[in-house]
């Protein structure tokens, strides 16, 4: 595995709006929707309007959101493809032979706005579409692996039956290019600590499917005040806070205790969870309702989770590595913080094994014409710049950890 993985750059956080899903959004007049606007010079441009409290003009949407050829071109332009790597390889990627395996997921808000029967039907269709999208992708020159893999969709909407959910888990696990499911924070409408999700966690654990937890709703839009700050506050803060709350509720409900084999990958490096995990542990320890509920100190569970590397900064990645790498010292419910001290850079290196490169493509395109996207280059440079990670650690974050997580090999 090591010999192969050092050549790989794996993007675990990349989205696609499949044509069938787009036609749904184009046909809608309420959020979420895609609409066409005519510019002053008479051109028609499409806009994506999907977030609650989003500025009403939404965001510009072009073919990079659905066109596979453009996605492949994007990969190549970022040094992710072997034949182009040699020309355009980002300076921070040391390997001279890179290729890409990209788990990709349908984009938010998934099926959240549909009735249960409609969500079931569309989930199955989109999962089949995504399998076709991945399996029929032209091979990138020289790539030793199939380049495209996906996260499927479950009909996670209120009033869906358990049978429908389990049937869809079964469908996904039978599709060879789908390696997990993408999931929002709402579950069946009551969040991820809903007891009704118990059979779903069990089925996903049993099937070995990775859960990619991704935000969509942010937090209450009233928090953003009246100033026009574009999309900055909901995307920079609302998204990560939403993930933080969702995964904390999952932990507090004991899901990770009951399902030790369940693998959950957190978007945007877990939001604020790494920064807040010691406070969470302290609040639990001081709360008579929760104190005895969990098998372990809250900090332990960070070592059970996976974190994408979409954090844009080396110090931020280093910090996530530090708190993830110390998790094992908090096994049990009365662990002491002192036990984790002095582990030093070994701890940071250990944490790196649960971190995986991602881009968030096609979101965050550069504002002006440029060959390479700042959002991608920054995330690569961040990995390169983490103090204390050696080349093996960095190669793991760039690709090797993803091979292991998704069970991919030559
Ligand atoms: N904006 C979105 O709506 N989704 C993402 O994943 C990133 C930015
Ligand atoms: Zn995303």
UniProtKB/TrEMBL annotation:
Q: Which InterPro entries match?
A: ACMSD, Amidohydro-rel, Metal_Hydrolase
GO BP term (any one)? secondary metabolic process
Amidohydrolase-related domain sequence ranges: 174-325
GO cellular component terms given for this protein: cytosol
Alphabetical list of SUPFAM superfamilies matching this protein: Metallo-dependent hydrolases
Select a single GO molecular function from the record's annotations and give it: hydrolase activity
- Keywords, alphabetical: Decarboxylase, Lyase
Report whether Lyase shows up as a keyword of the record.
yes
Q: Name one Pfam family in it.
A: Amidohydro_2
Q: Does the keyword tRNA processing apply?
A: no
Question: What family does the database annotate?
Answer: Belongs to the metallo-dependent hydrolases superfamily.
- What name appears for this protein in its UniProt entry? Amidohydrolase-related domain-containing protein
Q: Which organism is it from?
A: Postia placenta MAD-698-R-SB12
Q: What is the lineage of its organism?
A: Eukaryota, Fungi, Dikarya, Basidiomycota, Agaricomycotina
């Amino acid at each position: 595995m090591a010999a192969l993985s050092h050549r790989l750059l794996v993007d675990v956080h990349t989205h696609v709006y499949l044509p069938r899903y787009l036609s749904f959004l184009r046909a809608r007049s309420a959020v979420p929707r895609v609409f066409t606007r005519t510019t002053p010079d008479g051109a028609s441009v499409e806009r994506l309007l999907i977030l609650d409290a989003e500025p009403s003009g939404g965001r510009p949407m072009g073919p990079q959101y659905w066109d596979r050829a453009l996605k492949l071109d994007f990969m190549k332009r970022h040094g992710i493809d072997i034949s182009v790597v040699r020309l355009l390889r980002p300076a921070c990627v040391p390997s001279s032979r890179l290729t890409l395996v990209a788990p990709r997921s349908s984009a938010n808000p998934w099926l959240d706005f549909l009735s249960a029967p409609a969500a079931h039907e569309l989930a199955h269709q989109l999962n089949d579409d995504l399998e076709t999208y991945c399996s029929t992708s032209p091979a990138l020159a020289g790539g030793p692996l199939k380049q495209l893999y996906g996260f499927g969709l479950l009909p996670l909407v209120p009033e869906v039956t358990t049978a429908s959910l389990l049937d869809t888990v079964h469908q996904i696990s039978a599709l060879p290019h789908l390696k997990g499911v993408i999931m929002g924070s709402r579950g069946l409408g009551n969040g991820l600590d809903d007891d009704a999700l118990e059979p779903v966690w069990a089925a996903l654990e049993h099937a070995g499917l990775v859960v990619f937890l991704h935000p969509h709703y942010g937090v209450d839009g009233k928090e953003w005040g009246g100033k026009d700050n574009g999309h900055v506050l909901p995307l920079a803060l609302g998204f990560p806070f939403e993930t933080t709350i969702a995964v904390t509720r999952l932990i507090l409900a004991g899901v990770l205790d009951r399902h030790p084999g369940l693998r959950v990958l957190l978007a945007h490096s877990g939001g604020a969870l790494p920064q807040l995990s010691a406070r969470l542990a302290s609040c639990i320890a001081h709360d008579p309702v929760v104190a005895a509920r969990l098998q372990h100190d809250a900090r332990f569970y960070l070592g059970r989770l996976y974190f994408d590397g979409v954090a844009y900064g080396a110090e931020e990645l280093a910090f996530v590595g530090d708190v993830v790498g110390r998790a094992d010292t908090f096994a049990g419910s009365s662990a002491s913080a002192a036990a984790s001290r002095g582990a030093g850079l070994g701890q940071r290196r250990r944490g790196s094994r649960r971190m995986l490169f991602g881009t968030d493509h096609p979101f965050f395109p550069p504002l002006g014409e440029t060959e390479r996207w700042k959002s991608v280059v920054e995330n690569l440079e961040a990995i390169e710049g983490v103090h204390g990670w050696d080349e093996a650690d960095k190669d793991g974050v760039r690709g090797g950890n993803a091979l292991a997580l998704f069970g991919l090999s030559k």
